Here is the input.
Amino acid sequence: MRIAAPFPLQTPAPVGARPGPVRPYAVTGARLQTADPQAVPDPRPVYDPRTQTAAYADGTPLTAMATSKKTNPDGDTKNPPQHDEGADPGVFE
Amino acid sequence: MRTVLVVDGPHEAATDLIVQALTDRAVPAFRMDTAQFPAEVELSAHHRGGPAAGPWEGRLTTACRSVDLADIGAVYWNRPQQFEFPGLSVADEHWARGAARIGLGGVLTGLPVPWMNHPSRAAAAEFKPEQLRVAAAAGLDTLPTLVTNSAEEVRRFAKEVGAPLITKPLGIPYIAHTGQVETMYTRRVDLDELDGIETSAHLFQEEVQDKAYEVRVIVIGGACHGVRIDAGSTAAGLDWRTDYDALTYSSVAVPCSVAAAIRTYMKWMGLTYAAHDFVVRTDGRWTFYEANPSGQFAWLNEKVEFPLADTIADTLKGWCT
Here is the structure.
């Protein structure tokens, strides 16, 4: 069994249907955010292969958001969730 | 000037900053995501064989650019996404993923150039228990810590420590179910409420009672850049990630002994970049919390005297010159 899969580093976190009756201790006290299923998703930035950077449809570069505020897991659309720090280092094989 | 190979997802703002900085310095960059392979990235690599065979030769090509493997002088690797194989069955995809990992992955990870960071090193360095072991061995001050799936062990540990405990999530700090997202932060432990510990591994640590402030040390190619983080709210005092609006930042000098231990840590972990988090006590002692091999720096980029993306770009440029 490989504990650390070096390539690529991680898989996206899955989205479950609903929590079960038994839950991890770590979730206790977690900050809960609900999402309106009817809400229209905000547009994602578009990657430009020429410049090799991304920007929103209105031309705002993604970097403007990066430097305006820390991007944290419960940030809004302009501060999108980051999956790096403390993330799963790899998949089990 | 040789090329910097940038491997990351397409929506990583910090990586955009680095690519821009490389462009400003006229350093060629070839950016790709592993999720682009095989549909949008073509690989051709060959090994000459024989006693004089050198590194793998060949090219990486996208719709907009192409790079000769021999022209790659450094690799910036952050958090690329999984390979994608639309149209394949689950079983075929499983095989294709393994082939891509070993084929493309084998060619890339074998590039004989400096890495920031090599993915196998970064993956190994993500493990918090190993971080604490290596940090202590390198000479950094660390906290009593317990990893367990036993509530009884937590109570025993609390007695042994004789101080309040905090718990931090191991692994991805959020869970998503349909319609809701839960984000986990550092919190205080109530020894009467430990249900769910048995579901997986959990981390418990002595809570620092004499915290003055925290520091994030961004380590780039051996240079330590300290950013002092002062918390202006109770929540941020326990975990500054919970209340960014309450934070103030300033540059801080990293003590020589701490910097030397950090460099030892980086050497042993095989890293050239990491974000180290410390708590600084009221007596001036620096205590290590953790080190993220792909830790965030972008939100600090304009808040301190040293532009971090520029420093990373300068390091990559130096490797390519």
User: Anything to note?
Assistant: Residues 69-84, 88-93 of chain A have pLDDT under 50 and may be disordered.
